[in-house]
Every structure is written in C-alpha cells, then in structure tokens.
Amino acid sequence: MTQQNKPASSHFPLYRLLSDAPGGIVVDLDGEQLAAHSHETVASLMLRQIDPGQFRRSAVSGEPRAPLCMMGVCFECLVEIDGQRNEQACLVRVRSGMTIRRQFPRGERQ
Amino acid sequence: MSAPDLLIVGGGAAGLSAAIIARELGLSVELLDERPAFGGNYFAGAGNPSAGRLGEGYAQGADLLRKANGPRMHNGAFAWRIEPDGKTYFIDPASKVGRISPRRLLIATGAQERPVPIPGALLPGVMYAGAAQLMLKTFGSIPAGRAVLVGSGPLLLLLAKQLLGQGAALAAMIETTPRAGLLTTARSLPSALKVPALLSEGLSFRSALRKSSMAWHRQASGIFISGRDKAGSVTFTDRHGRRHTIMADLILLHDGVIPNDHVARQLKCKETWNPRQHCFNTTVDQWGETSRKGIFAAGDCTGIWGVEAARRSGEIAAIEIARQLGFINADERDRRAAEPLRQRARQVAFRPFVETHFPPTLSRAEFAHDDTVICRCETVTAGEIRLAIRQGASGPDQLKSFTRCGMGPCQGRSCAMAVAEILASETGQSIGEIGRHDIRAPLKPLPLGQIATVRDAVEEIVA
Ligand code: FES
Hints:
Largest interface: A-B, 54 and 68 residues
Helix content of chain B: 25-40%
Strand content of chain A: 25-35%
Strand order of the largest sheet of chain B: 3-2-1-7-21
CATH topology of chain A: Ubiquitin-like (UB roll)
Largest sheet of chain A: 5 strands, mixed
Shape of chain B: globular
Largest sheet of chain B: 5 strands, parallel
CATH architecture of chain A: Roll
Number of strands of chain B: 23
Number of helices of chain A: 1
Mean pLDDT of chain B: 91
CATH superfamily of the largest domain in chain B: FAD/NAD(P)-binding domain
Bound molecules: FE2/S2 (inorganic) cluster
Oligomer: heterodimer
Structural class of chain B: alpha/beta
Distance between the termini of chain A: 34 Å
Number of helices of chain B: 14
Distance between the termini of chain B: 18 Å
C-alpha cells in the first residue's frame, strides 16, 4: 500500500476560473452577495465559490450531495432559486438579483 | 399553440444540424433545449467569450450555432410530455407551460455519462469527467485542487490532455481499460483505418499524457472512494496487484457514454439492446424514423456513434422529413442525402474500434458489493435490489415498486442500466429481454400546484 501526497484540504471549492476578469452579475447565495459571469449557471458558480460538502443535503438520506453531471441528468444539484425549490442548478443561468438558497432537510447550515 | 412543420427536441450537434437543413428546405422549425445555451455536450460553450480556448472544434461549433440561429429556438425549455402524434408540452425558464403541435418530431437528446455506481461515488467531490469538461468548455473553469481521473474511454484521455494544457493539477490517471485483446483489436482495425484522423488523434492523446508528470496507472481494479462529508481519496489495485491510495479533492469518473433516451422511452419507441455498446439503441430506419410514424430520432440518443455521425444523422432526418411533407421529392431527397449518408457510414465504421478498446468495466453493477448505492435519489443499494429479486421482483417495474429504485427525481437516469445488469446476473436472463422500467410523463418533476399554467396543462391531459 502506498500513500501519495498530503490529505486533501478541508475547505475548498472544487473549481476556479481561468481568467480573473470580474463578473458583472451579482446574485444572493444564502445572504451572501457573489459576483458571477453572465454565461455561468448557478451550479458552476457555486462549484467555484463554496465547499462541495456544503452544496446541499439529500432529503431522503440527509447525506451531503453535490453536482455530478452538470448536464441535467443526475438531479444532484437541486437548489431553491427565487423561491422555487428543487431547481436544477446546472441548467439555470445566473441573473442579476437572483436569490439562491441551498436546501438542507432540517434547515441546518454547515 | 404553435404548429411548425418540424419540432426538434435537443439543441446539440444533431438537433442544430437538422434545424439548419430543414429551414434551408423551407420548413418551419421550432427547437426546444433544456440547457441555457445550445451546443449540447460536444459544442458546449461554443457561443461563449471563453470559446476558442479549446481549438479547432470550437470554430466548427461556433459556425453551427451561428447558422442554426433563428426564430423559435428556445433555451431553458424542457419537453416534459410528448404524445404519439408529436404534440409536446414544455416548461419554459419562467415555469410557464407551452404546447407545440408539429407535423413531424425529431428527438435529438444526445448522450449522458454512463452511470458509475462504485463505493463512495455519492460523496461531494466526485463528478463525471464530462462535468469537468463542461466546466472548462462552458465556463472556463478548471479543478482548483488536486484532481484524479478514474475509468476508461477516449473522453478521459482527452480531458486529461485539455486540463493539463490549462495548468490544472492532475494527481493521477487511474485507467480501468482492460488490456486490449490483441485479436479483437486486430479484428476491428481494418474498419478503424477508414478514419485514420480519428485514430491518430486518439494515439496523440496518449503520447502527450506520457510526457506529463501525472501518475498513470493502467488496468486498475477494486476502486473505491473514501471521505466523510466529501471525497478525500481514491483507493485501487494496480495491474501488479499492489494497493494504492491517492489523496484528491476532485475525483472524475468516466466509463463511456450512453444514449440520453428518456423522450424516446416515454413514447415507447421500439429499442434494441446493443451488446457491443452495452446500451439500448432506439430503433430507427436509415432516415432516422422510429417505430412511431412521424417521430424521428438522430444522434447519440439513438446509440453512441459520435459527433460527426450525429451531425449527418440530423441532416439526413431533416431531408427525409422535407420529403414526407412534400417540400422535396424522392429524387431530390436521395440526391441531397447521398453525401451525409456516405459520411455517416465512415464514422460508424470507426465505432467497433472504440467499442472493443474501451468496454465498460468500472460501471458494471453485477459486480457491485451489496452495500454499494445503485439508486442515488432514493439511496437503494445493490444488496436491497438483490434481496427484492430473491423475494420475487422479476423485472425493472416491479423492482421500482419494491425498492423505490428509479422513483426519485432523476426517474432512473442514474440507475436503470445498473438495475438491468443486476437483474441479468441474478436471473440469468439477458439485459435485452429484461429491458428498463417504463418512463412516464412528466419527464422531470414539475412545480405542481404552484403554477397555474402547469395545473391547467395537467387537467387538460387528465381530461
Ligand atoms: S448536476 Fe446533474 S442534474 Fe445538475
């Protein structure tokens, strides 16, 4: 058995943008104002802003889940957008003033 | 309600190609795509500011998008119910229901990743390779921490090359591709040589990757992912029998792609099991017409033939639809379809090489441990499915009511193949005989009750 590298870092978005041009769109994610680029989806923005362990929890098992496919197939990216629950974050483009709420079954926040 | 000559469901390579030709031939065309931008998986991001980063394919994609651009092309519009006469209900980005009654319907819903049910695959930080490719192509984003690629297939090699080229930190590639049986590869080689460009492209990935510093393990097996609230490492056995554990922030799985065929299944179009592709193929004639008259299907949603074949299939379907509707006669159809038919045949000839070289391995659920989750939505394990089979559930529909497997929001998009594989190994029947559970409208959960137009549509259907 070999072990390579050090343990993975503890709090870390999974992705980063290649360009550092600032995004011109501002959305509200659970009370926090985030700048986004106009072609981004809610899921792509969240994946480069928050820790994947805090994306959502399954309503069935309570386990943490996060986007898997980014193409509308897996339904692991569900969030509340402008009051509408269970939206597929990977299929919805960001809009200025959009409110995004993560879904945790018992109202808990990580 | 609009009544175009042709309604296309899906705005990727096949759907856009069909739209261009159909309009050229004088048809009125409407197109629904659930994504916020056209291009499907292959040409994703072709219309974006970050496009061009990925080279030549992009120019093609941008060109396709430009030509297909026109009125009545809907983004963010999801077709959730289609009737046998083609009448389609969709929901738009503002959650309003619309109806379209086309004279002909073309399904062009593309491919999805082949689901990979392995231990730990539910953890955040595990994604499909196709997702990382979409992050790069569509959004100009790359993995921020250490990424590991696990599985098999040309896309995995291509993605490694693309991500390394953009400066991503790839800790390792863990390939599960079996050692190519020399005989089978030799048998498929003559047909593959008809498209040497594709072949040499594939070989060039490998040599580029060999030059990188990324660790590369081949013929890996016994793969599982560990972590508490998210993935932290992947463990596997290498081809010499040694166990390894590699720490990673992002674990990208891939075991090929399968048709995204929910629409055809909801319409109960005839399908056949394709053992070489290890997936179901929607049955279509050479023009793309399904077992339901007037309903066509083109591109990877009918079987995995690749992007060039998808474009040609879209064109061929549009040409035949134009003939059926009297825009052109049969001679004109044959004249126009000759070249795309020839080009498609060349592409299809290449597939046996890919199919024998990259058979699905990582995803095969008949080998899944009892505690591995098969249905992600309802958290149903392989053991629960096997138990239900022993207790008398004899097919996918019964298993669904016994275990809830396939009842969640994804409606079995993640588990239907795995369920069929487990059923086949438990009962000794073939997957082709077993089939998959019935798909009913709506094709995804609708915001019922909250929205008046949805309520009206449902009442109209029930009435
Ligand atoms: S990430 Fe799979 S449906 Fe959104």
